[in-house]
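Supplementary Text 2. Reproducibility record for the structural model of the 315-residue chain.

All settings were left at their defaults, and a single model was retained for analysis rather than an ensemble. We include the record here because the model underlies the residue-level annotations in Supplementary Table 4.
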Amino acid sequence: MRTEQLEYIAAVTRLGSLRRAAEELRLSQPALSETVRNLERELGVDLLERKRTGATMSAEGRELLPHITGVLEAVDRLRAAAGEQHRISRMVRVGTVNAATVPLLIPVVRAFRAAHPLTQVEVVAAQQTDIHRALTEGGFDLGLVNHLEGDDVPPALESTQLLHGQPVVCLRPDSPLASRAAVSVDDLLTQPLIAMRSGYVMNRYVHRLLNGCAPSLAYSTDGAEMGKLMVAQGLGATVLPDFSIIGDPLERLGAITYRPLAGAPPRVLLMLQGRRAQSVPRAARDLRETFVRRAGELGGTLSSSPNQEADSATG
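Retained model, structure tokens:
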């Protein structure tokens, strides 16, 4: 067994494809595939499930993944102790629904990189369902997802609540709804609505909120970031957690604002999730601790109010 065989398995797991892993490792795909199969024969288990859509870790592979990452980290520590300056850096992959990007995610990545300059952080935008699957299969180390208060969390994942907030209506300051203290469902039905695609919690919440009423569904999109850009361009309004808007560059520039929903909407919880495993890579543990520490600095919530003075000046 060679260390590079374990590196290859880790790359295939992270990228979900033998082809993409071969490109990153600068190997031919047949050579990579044969190396992986040699390791599987030596261990006596099929580490990968090979499908037409890509390669994912098998159930046996998921059980062995913590041991593989543990060996690789031990090799890194040995190289560091020996003074090797060009060791292979580890990578931590974070799946996110693009929630609380500015107040939470960006500061966490910046602080983590300062403490771990040789560890790469890859942030991947995805839907909740895709994040849960990738966490289970080993493709992501951590996931940032929204939950409505009362939702069940996947039992196979370890979940930590980072922030809580309220669903609000994100709109342009010159929107007629910006003059409202709060936006009702009837108000919302008068405007083109930018919805999150199926697979996002906010898609499910909006359908529940409208309760069968026919909205002017003008667009649907993936993730809060694109939704906010579409709002800024005057294409409509969208419903997002307040922690996805507060502090956003578009909000600071006055291109978007937000108003609370009338009534008593449920809280939206921002959860940090990861696999339940006896051995978790050190980098992933450190990144999790950085998330929790930053959330503690924010007090578990983000409180702010739209800049009414700026809104009235533009409206």
